[in-house]
Amino acid sequence: MVGIDAPVGAGLTDGRAFRLNFLLHLDRDIPPRQAYREAVDLFVAAEELGYDSGWVIQRHFRQGNEHISSPLVVLAAIAEHTHRIRLGTGVLVLPLEDPLRVAEDATSLDEISSGRLELGIGSGPFPGAWEAFGRDLAERHDLFGRSLARLHELLVGRAVNNLGEVLHPPGDALRERLWQATTSNPDHAHEAATAAAIAGDGLQLSRATAWQGGTTRDAQRRQAAIIEAYRAGWTDPGRSPRVQVSRAVYPHADRALAQQLVTPGVRRWQSWSTSGEPKNAQTVDDYLAADRALIGPAEALAGELIADPALRHATDLLVSFVPGVPDHDEHLRLLESTARELAPLLGWRPPADSPVHSPVPS
Fold it and tell me: Is residue 289 scored above 90 in pLDDT?
């Protein structure tokens, strides 16, 4: 990303500063059918606004009140209503899945979407899901490593049986669009980032990796160090490192009104969260600070993002609008405000094949 006053990112080969992506938290208290229809609407709107990609999370049994337990199924529906925007999983919890079934579903979706899938995978923190699937959460890192190695083999065409049969549809193209979410455990984060680089996978840094205490700038510096380890470990001369950093933004001209809008979401997230600084916050202001959420006018948010050291080598900025739990119309407003007001202040512009060629700055 290249901001008005300072560089914010690594820059892309097409001359654009960074890719602008959004993370969909489908967590309103509405019937699942309505939630999935709204997801399609939001992706269609994001495509028209020029977003490079949209990402959905995976939550089993509606942990955190999310509706998406099968992200590849939901993205397949979205694929049929969109044409350009890329479709990401942020993230699919790989150790709870059969890697072969993931590979088959993912490559099928990639064919349906004409090669638009960005497959983000991680190990997932929720104990209840691990218990339900009969897995030991204490083994999450080992299980993730074994599942990931298997997925790599499948995508590059390693035979799956003695008959010499291989994955179909083939996964060689998707193999280059695999992303690994790093663990939030600082004892493993650098090692995991280096391993992702050696594998040639993209690196995803969630906001959860920032919930480790200290100031916001301390958290950003920790993430910057993880990115440095990833970039240092990159060995593929034919491709560039891919780094996606997630930030919670809530652009609104009136910060006081914005805080009122997100207060129900803050209280709701506190009610189901089980640990971490945000859970223990006493006031809404305390929660927003602990959550590292940026709320207020686009110009103020842009200044914060420009100064964020973790974004200086990011190729992708993933924005989420938590903890607002916005209704449908407010979600559309947030998508538009981010694309038309906030992101241009950071140097972003839509891709050449976007319906929107020149976003209108504020």
Answer: no
